[in-house]
């Protein structure tokens, strides 16, 4: 229990920095919708994903996160893709021969929703948001989308899991046991079948969390941290069956330092993939997945910490289950968000 109390104390005394951070997921490249609502409706099917992350295994009170996301297109022209082969089949012609995908393609809309919860010792963060995106063709090979996702965030504290010398300690009994705040995320996404570039911002509404009362006539207020994300990825088809996908993400959430992720995935036959991820001064992760059918895919990742905290835990585990609903084209591998 000492580890739990130490962790709770650290989180309570650094509330502005930690409790307002959005959860970190290693496999965000499988589901960039977690970061950017402009992804809403990017594919030709309804994309349903369930994910869980067990962080810092073996450390009592460590973060445990769960999420469910669903987004789908509206009024989208479904056009066959040169990567649209079924199963392990490759197109009869070389897969690098592209069709005229954008002949009179209309703009389309996307709708989505996301529910997420993270439990860290006595603290929990739960959120729900709904999203809308507008996708506009800008050339024969490129589209751009803009999205917005309003929602609610709830911060909760379970006093029964915290022991203090003073039963009326203001750190626990100051009225912040439960708080609900309005949240707003916005983003842009420029993409084709070979690359993407995205920018987004989260917790953009200037909601405030109140510090512990100091006994002075004025209470000090602390704003929720705004989060900014910049992402980019490139798909390189080196043979009809093999593709390499390097990507990078930069996250800024002041006053925390900038965080940089670099990833590299190898995809074979649009079915099986494996990759490695490096988070600067934090972790190295291995990940792998399989597109089982036009309905189902699954992925797993393991993070080995490179930070000083790494000696106290056994790494982090993450599992993502994906369902492609209303997939009338029988797509095995995502065409636009690989």
Q: What is the spatial order of strands in the main beta sheet? A: 1-2-3-4-5-6-7-10-12-13-14-15-16-17
Order of helices and strands: HHEEEEEEEEEEEEEEEEE
Q: How many E-type strands?
A: 17
Q: What global shape is seen? A: globular
Written account of the structure:
With 338 residues, the protein is mainly beta. Helices cover 5% and strands 47% of the residues. Strand 14 and strand 15 form a beta hairpin. It is globular. The N terminus is likely disordered.
Summarize the structure.
The chain has two helices and 17 strands.
Key features?
338 residues, mainly beta, 14-stranded antiparallel barrel, two-stranded antiparallel sheet, disordered N terminus
What does the secondary structure layout of this molecule look like, with pairings?
Elements lengths: L1 H12 L1 H4 L27 E9 L9 E11 L33 E13 L2 E15 L5 E15 L20 E14 L3 E8 L5 E3 L10 E3 L3 E8 L1 E2 L4 E11 L6 E10 L3 E8 L3 E9 L4 E10 L10 E10 L13
Antiparallel strand pairs: 1-2, 1-17, 2-3, 3-4, 4-5, 5-6, 6-7, 7-10, 8-9, 10-12, 11-12, 12-13, 13-14, 14-15, 15-16, 16-17
């Amino acid at each position: 229990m000492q580890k739990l109390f130490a962790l709770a104390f650290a989180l309570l005394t650094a509330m502005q920095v930690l409790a307002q951070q959005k959860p970190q997921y290693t496999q965000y490249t499988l589901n960039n919708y977690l970061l950017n609502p402009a992804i809403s409706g990017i594919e030709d099917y309804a994309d349903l994903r369930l994910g869980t992350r067990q962080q810092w295994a073996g450390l009592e009170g460590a973060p445990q996160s769960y999420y469910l996301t669903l987004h789908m297109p509206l009024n989208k022209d479904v056009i066959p893709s040169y990567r649209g082969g079924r199963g392990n089949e490759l197109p009869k012609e070389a897969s690098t021969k592209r069709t005229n995908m954008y002949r009179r393609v209309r703009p389309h809309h996307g709708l989505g929703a996301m529910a997420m919860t993270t439990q860290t010792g006595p603290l929990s963060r739960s959120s729900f948001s709904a999203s809308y995106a507008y996708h506009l063709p800008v050339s024969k090979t490129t589209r751009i989308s803009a999205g917005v996702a309003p929602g609610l965030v709830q911060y909760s504290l379970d006093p029964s899991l915290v022991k203090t010398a003073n039963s009326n300690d203001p750190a626990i009994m100051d009225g912040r046991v439960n708080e609900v705040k309005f949240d707003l995320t916005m983003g842009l996404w420029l993409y084709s079948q070979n690359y993407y570039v995205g920018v987004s911002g989260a917790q953009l509404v200037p909601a405030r969390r109140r510090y512990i009362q100091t006994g002075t006539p004025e209470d000090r207020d602390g704003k929720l941290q705004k989060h900014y994300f910049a992402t980019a990825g490139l798909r390189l088809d080196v043979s009809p069956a093999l593709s390499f996908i390097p990507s990078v993400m930069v996250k800024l959430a002041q006053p925390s330092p900038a965080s940089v992720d670099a990833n590299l995935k190898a995809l074979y036959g649009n079915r099986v993939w494996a990759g490695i991820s490096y988070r600067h001064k934090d972790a190295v992760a291995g990940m792998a997945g399989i597109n089982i059918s036009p309905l189902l895919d699954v992925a797993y990742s393991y993070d080995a910490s490179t930070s000083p905290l790494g000696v106290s835990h056994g790494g982090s585990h993450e599992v993502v289950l994906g369902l492609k609903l209303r997939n009338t084209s029988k797509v095995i591998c995502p065409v636009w968000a690989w």
